[in-house]
C-alpha cells in the first residue's frame, strides 16, 4: 500500500476536525494545509489544546477529519474503508507514545515482533533482532518492560514502530516521560533513522531542545498553522513558544465553538489539478 518513493510522505489539505456539535462544538483543527517531505524530521509544537495530537491522529489515519484531505504515501485516506484504514495503520505508519505502550507480559523481542504477528506474518527473527540492535538493545531481547529503564522501553517502542518499515513514524511527546539525558538518546535515535534510512518522522513535542533535532518546526495555535520554521535553535524555539502560550492564555473566541465552514468548491477532493488550496507548506522550498 505504501510507496516510500513518494516525495511527500504525508499531505494535509484544508484539514478540519470538529468535536461535538452545536454550542459544545470544538474546532480542534481549523483548516490545516501542510506537507511532510519523505526523509525529513518535523517537530509539531504549540500550546496545550492547539490541536497537535489531533493533527497527528488525522495524519496517521487514527482519526478521520471532518473536512479536508489526508494523503499518506500517495494514498488519499478519505475514500478508504475501515478495513483499508486498519491495514494502513498496521503497515503504513508507526506510532510512538509518551507512555511507551509496551505489552508488559512480552519480552522486548516479542513486543517488536508484535506488529508482524498481528499482520498474520511469521516474524523473521533476524529482522526483529536487527531492529533491536538498531536501537542499541541487542542484549535486552529477552527482557520484559519492567526490567528496562524508561529510555530503553521507549527505544523498544521505536523498534516496534519501525519493524513494518512504515512510510511515516509518528511520535506524540515521545520524551515527555523521560529525563533530559535519556530524552536526548531517544531524539538522537529518531534523528538517526532519518539520516541513515531516510525515515520520515513527525513528532509532537513541547520541549524546545527536542525541536532542535528536527529539520523544521511547525507551530500550531488554535488549530491553525501559525509558522513553519527551519534552523531555529532551542532558545529561539522557546521564545516563539512563550509568545504563543501568552496569546493562547488570553480569552479568545477563536478555536472554541467556532462554526465549521464547508468549503464551497471541490475542497473535499485532492487538489492535484491546482484548483484546490495553495500548495502545502514545505520547508525545503521556503529557504
Ligand atoms: N475526543 C475529543 N472530544 C472532544 N474534544 C476534543 C477531543 N480531542 C481533542 N479535543 C479538543 O480539541 C482541542 C485540541 O486537542 P488536542 O489535539 O489534544 O491538543 P494538543 O495535543 O495540542 O494539546 C482541545 O480543545 C481538546 O479539548
Ligand atoms: Mg496532545
TrEMBL record:
Residues 10-247 form the ABC transporter domain. The keyword Magnesium does not apply. Gene3D superfamilies: P-loop containing nucleotide triphosphate hydrolases. SUPFAM superfamilies: P-loop containing nucleoside triphosphate hydrolases. GO terms for cellular component: membrane protein complex; plasma membrane. Residues 245-287 are annotated as: Disordered. Keywords: ATP-binding, Nucleotide-binding, Transport. GO terms for molecular function: ATP binding; ATP hydrolysis activity; transmembrane transporter activity. It comes from the Bacteria. CDD domains: ABC_MJ0796_LolCDE_FtsE (cd03255). Residues 246-258, 269-280 have a biased composition (Low complexity). It holds the Pfam family ABC_tran. The keyword Nucleotide-binding applies. PANTHER family: ABC TRANSPORTER RELATED, IMPORT ATP-BINDING PROTEIN. This is Putative ABC transport system ATP-binding protein.
Amino acid at each position: 500500500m505504501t510507496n516510500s518513493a513518494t516525495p511527500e510522505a504525508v499531505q494535509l489539505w484544508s484539514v478540519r476536525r470538529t468535536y461535538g456539535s452545536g454550542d459544545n462544538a470544538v474546532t480542534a483543527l481549523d483548516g490545516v494545509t501542510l506537507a511532510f517531505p519523505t526523509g525529513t524530521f518535523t517537530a509539531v509544537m504549540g500550546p496545550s489544546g492547539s490541536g497537535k495530537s489531533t493533527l497527528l491522529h488525522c495524519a496517521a489515519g487514527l482519526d478521520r477529519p471532518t473536512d479536508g484531505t489526508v494523503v499518506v504515501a500517495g494514498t488519499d485516506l478519505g475514500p478508504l474503508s475501515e478495513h483499508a484504514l486498519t491495514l494502513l495503520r498496521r503497515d503504513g505508519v508507526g506510532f510512538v507514545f509518551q507512555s511507551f505502550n509496551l505489552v508488559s507480559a512480552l519480552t522486548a523481542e516479542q513486543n517488536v515482533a508484535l506488529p508482524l504477528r498481528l499482520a498474520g506474518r511469521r516474524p523473521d527473527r533476524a529482522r526483529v533482532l536487527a531492529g533491536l540492535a538498531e536501537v542499541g538493545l541487542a542484549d535486552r531481547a529477552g527482557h520484559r518492560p519492567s526490567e528496562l529503564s524508561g529510555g530503553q522501553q521507549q527505544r523498544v517502542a521505536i523498534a516496534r514502530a519501525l519493524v513494518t518499515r512504515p512510510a511515516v513514524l509518528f511520535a506524540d511527546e515521545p520524551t515527555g516521560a523521560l529525563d533530559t539525558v535519556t530524552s536526548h538518546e531517544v531524539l538522537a535515535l529518531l534523528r538517526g533513522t532519518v539520516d541513515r534510512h531516510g525515515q520520515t518522522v513527525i513528532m509532537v513535542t513541547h520541549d524546545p531542545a527536542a525541536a532542535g533535532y528536527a529539520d523544521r518546526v511547525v507551530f500550531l495555535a488554535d488549530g491553525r498553522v501559525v509558522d513553519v520554521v527551519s534552523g531555529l535553535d532551542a532558545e529561539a524555539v522557546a521564545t516563539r513558544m512563550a509568545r504563543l502560550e501568552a496569546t493562547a492564555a488570553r480569552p479568545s473566541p477563536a478555536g472554541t465553538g467556532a462554526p465549521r465552514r464547508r468549503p464551497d468548491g471541490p475542497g473535499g477532493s485532492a487538489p492535484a489539478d491546482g484548483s484546490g488550496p495553495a500548495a502545502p507548506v514545505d520547508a525545503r522550498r521556503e529557504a
